[in-house]
Amino acid sequence: MNKLAWEGVYPAVTTKFHQDGSLDVDGFIFNIKKQVEAGVDGIIIGGSLGENSTITHDERIELLEACLQAVGQQVDVLINVAEGSTTQAIALTQRAEKAGAHGIMLLPPMMYKPTDEEVGDFFIEVARSTALPIVLYNNPVDYKIEVTLDIFERLLPYENIQAVKESTRDISNVTRMRNRFGDRYKILCGVDTLAMEELLMGADGWIAGLVDAFPAETVCIYRLIKAGRIEEAKRIYRWFLPILELDISPQLVQNIKLAETYTGMGTEHVRAPRKILQGAERKRVQQILENGLAARPTLPDYLAL
Predict the structure, then answer these.
(1) Which of 129, 150, 176, 206 has the most CB atoms at less than 10 Å from its CB?
(2) What is the CATH number of the domain that holds 60?
(3) What is the tens place of the pLDDT at every residue in 146-170?
(4) Is residue 247 part of a domain?
């Protein structure tokens, strides 16, 4: 069993498409190389932001293999596993392991409201099927399934369950996890608008969304906080917050892909049923981005931290 550091910034990367809906692997790798240049610590492929629901297992493995070839010697490369059945989750996990993934991000079973016992059993069966390190995704706001402290208690014996993407929207949950489990589980903030707060309360990392368009600013905030340069981090974070709020929206994919076009990091192409932003909402998001870019801060030499 491998053990990942689970520290730093892990972009939940968008999946790039051509206008006809086919995968744009070159565009995908272009963005990822920019992320790595900016100092990110890992890549998570095929998450919610990666339009998981519209890409096939074959496409996810294709993206994984391309990413591993491009940057797999420099950063952790993980694939998201969000499946409705235990069998399918195990199948995708084992394919990812065979392809060389460094780890997986694992969601509870979707499209069914399971009991806590079923959630725990699901995680255990997947963990038993692989040697890959696992970060669990705890997002009861969007997915209506909470990974409770008691479920985490059940999972303690399974050493490859190593971390949690903390997206409960409750900053106090960082402290609850620390009080009950110490450092047994690494904690990565999964909500852009709470990242600084959770990092100050002891989170180890940040699974980020707007990093896809603004990698340098995201990594800079993280490293300044960990270096104790809180006032500098606060200044950048306050500038960033109106843009980060584009992550907490049902249209987060379209918002962030539009942001990527503004910073030269990608295109807006999405797969149906999504459509690119239109009308008043598009103008609202554009205004936020334009205001932010007009006041974009000068960053310190954060890569030296």
Answers:
(1) 206
(2) 3.20.20.70
(3) 999 999 999 999 999 999 999 999 9
(4) no
